[in-house]
Amino acid sequence: MEERRKHPRTEINQPGYVCSGGSVMSCVVRNISAEGAAIDVENPAFVPECFRLVIANEPSDVRECRIAWIQKNRIGLTFVDET
After folding, report:
1. Largest CA distance in the chain
2. Whole-prediction pTM value?
């Protein structure tokens, strides 16, 4: 399969949180790059289109995200600039 990403992703497999509108859902951050990430969640239907991603071991590193794709329980994310 042809690689279409501009930036290589790093496998991290770290616990994280999907945060939106006062609600928090746990997830596993499978990989991350400068432009996005892939997460696994129990039920993708409950993940909003835009949210904040927090990696558990780096709670000061909060990323604004938008869903790029969903395949089963894995969600591809694009990081959104906060301008």
Report:
1. 39
2. 0.89
Token pair recorded at residue 27: 């997830």
Q: Looking at this protein, which amino acid is placed at residue 72?
A: K
Contacts of 5 by beta carbon, 8 Å cutoff, 6+ apart: 33, 35, 36
For residue 30, how many other CB atoms are within 10 A of its CB?
A: 18
Give Cβ neighbours of residue 18 (< 8 Å, ≥ 6 apart): 24, 25, 26, 27, 39, 41, 47, 48, 51, 52, 53
What are residue 46's phi and psi, to 5 degrees?
A: -95, 0
Of all residues in the chain, the percent with pLDDT exceeding 90 is: 83
